[in-house]
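Summary for the steering committee. One of the milestones for this cycle was to obtain a three-dimensional model of the protein with pyridoxal-5'-phosphate bound, which we needed before selecting residues for the alanine scan. The sequence and ligand used are listed below.
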Amino acid sequence: MVPPITNDIENIVSSWQLAERAYLVKANIIREILKISQRPNTISFAGGLPAPELFPLEQIKAACGRVIDNHGAPALQYSLSLGIPLLRKWLAKRLSSEKLLISEEEILITSGSQQGLDVIGRVFLEKGAVVLCENPTYLGALQAFNAYQAEYVTVDMDDEGMITKQVEEKIKKYKPRIIYSVPNFQNPTGITLSENRRFELVELARKYNVPIIDDNPYGELRYEGKDVPSLKTIGGDIVIQLGTFSKIISPGLRIAWLTANKDIIGTFERLKQGTDLHTNTFAQYVVYEFVRTGALETHLRKLIVSYAERRNIMIEEMEKHFPEGVKFTRPEGGLFLWIELPEKLSATDLLSKAVDNGVAYVPGYPFFAQGGGHNTMRLNFSNANPEKIREGIKRLGKVFKKHI
Ligand SMILES: Cc1ncc(COP(=O)(O)O)c(C=O)c1O
């Protein structure tokens, strides 16, 4: 008889020699906070989740049926690393406009934009390579780039987004490999980069030949104000754009895309291959069958009405319940807004008090690549329904009033 294995597994694994990156990449704080905020009766503004009751369940069910009926076995087969041609062709047409022509050869389908960020890391970054980014910036990008041991040079923001007049000096001094920006309704602040600043940024990127990563998951979720031309439209080949169906159909599908000049797409394709060979074939067909009928446009209109209402309610309630000294952004779109508390308060210390009062948020500090932001926090307004938003903001207001 084989004797049972009695070794203590913790002892075994704790002495394994891991790669440097395994120690560098910390747990994503948002995922940790999501665990706390799942306590019963807690109203959470912490995640970045779309509203589950708005998922187009019936249309996705019908699209799944059409995938089998119209495409059969190939929908369950290995497929091209670049992505299925039908979806790439559809995207090329949708992304193209009078001012920007995108071809199918310039599109790589990815497993979420998060994988797009990882592939960008694989292609551009290594130990000590510099990323120039907004301050604060998307935490998931930092997590993806940290695995490649990137370093960060940050550019401050105001209500027009990245302050481009800081950029040239930083490019000259630190020679970044890429400029990373979330120009539309930024995660975490909700701020949009103004049109003038977009032109300035593109001009600098061209002058020093540094590619801009235009990470754009929220561009289609505008609730007020005028559309601003995208960095990709303004900058063309100097810009690599990431787009995703996560916030406009469903994040669980994990279907997104990366758009770049066709001379570099092959490099992205090669470096993506090692991670997953290709993005989920079936899910790509499901998305294709959903969008080709025009269902996306109808669905987007519904999302915009609903998210605009939630944003408006959140802002109204904040105006009613927050004490003086608490500042917040009023985003024209997206899923998030940003709060700045008086300097003396720490959003991290307040979190446990907020959770005790049945409301959760994400402290802002992890979004700052070079430290700072202890008195800031991010709130999501898409996931909770209006009634919960009203109650949650009232609870948060009480916590603020008690500690200010
Ligand atoms: C700025 C930004 N980039 C990328 C992502 C990742 O999105 P996906 O679900 O497509 O991986 C998110 C998700 O919240 C995001 O906010």
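Key point for the committee: DSSP finds 15 helices and 14 strands in the chain.
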